[in-house]
Design goal:
Blueprint: H1 16-21, H2 24-43, H3 56-77, E1 83-92, H4 97-101, E2 105-108, E3 111-124, E4 132-143, E5 148-155, E6 158-160, E7 165-177, H5 184-193, E8 208-218, E9 225-234
Antiparallel strand pairs: 1-3, 2-3, 3-7, 4-5, 4-6, 4-8, 5-7, 8-9
């Protein structure tokens, strides 16, 4: 007897392209082709990044809305540098520890003077939407006539409401040393602070030209920002005794 064995029919032979698709390099190449086709379809507006979502047009609208929101937030939160102007009463003295810490003195030999004072300033925050915060304020005081520095001042942390005209009394340390009592700066301030009784009847004390250079460190802005305040006829904030003639 003869045993018959069933032999399966031979299938078609594997093509070279099919063998390549089974390799890792082939699979990577097919994935790259799919991504390239998807990008071309998205660029033509035929599909989105997430199925039908985030088409090219929708993404452009989304980016535009995000940029508008960022611009609005920055317009609200970024502080603006305020403007500074002197008050009508520019120099004054006030009772307190600052006034007591600095001696008031005018001397002819050696020629010098020193006294505490407060500079009246108005700070405008009309361009700010949120409160404005100063990390510090520093001031140099100059005689605007003789162009000599005669003092300094400083103020620490300060927060000012938005859309306001804030009035600040900034403490100053007025101190100047001259070569002699004919120094123009010494003469100007001595004349302005001299007792009114020593002037002829009806004559008022002369004013002085005061110039402030202000450096402002503003929270939220890099560096420091400068401002100036000048009064051409500021009155001396105190009166010397008649014995100081």
């Amino acid at each position: 007897p003869v045993e018959l064995v069933t032999v399966p029919a031979l299938g078609p032979e594997w093509q070279r392209s099919e063998l390549k698709d089974m390799t890792r390099a082939g699979k990577r190449e097919k994935a790259n082709d799919r991504r390239r086709d998807t990008w071309k379809a998205w660029n033509r507006g035929e599909t989105g990044l997430c199925g039908r979502w985030f088409t090219k047009r929708a993404l452009a609208v989304f980016v535009f809305i995000v940029c508008c929101i960022i611009g609005i937030v920055l317009a609200i939160t970024v502080p603006r540098v305020p403007s500074v102007s002197p008050l009508s009463t520019f120099l004054s003295q006030q009772s307190g520890s600052w006034n007591d810490s600095i001696p008031t003195a005018f001397s002819r030999a050696p020629a010098n003077f020193s006294f505490p004072a407060y500079a009246g300033l108005q700070i405008s925050t009309s361009a700010n939407v949120i409160p404005l915060t100063f990390s510090s304020l520093s001031v140099q005081v100059w005689d605007g006539t003789t162009n000599m520095q005669i003092g300094t001042g400083a103020y620490g942390h300060l927060t000012i409401p938005a859309k306001a005209f804030y009035q600040l009394q900034l403490p100053l340390n007025i101190s100047y040393v001259a070569g002699n009592d004919t120094d123009p700066t010494w003469v100007d301030w001595y004349s302005a602070c001299k007792n009114p009784a020593l002037y002829p009847s009806g004559q008022s004390r002369p004013g002085v030209n005061v110039l402030l250079y202000i450096d402002m460190a503003i929270r939220g802005l890099p560096g420091t920002y400068k401002a100036t305040a000048q009064v051409a006829d500021a009155g001396c904030p105190f009166e010397l005794p008649t014995s100081a003639a």
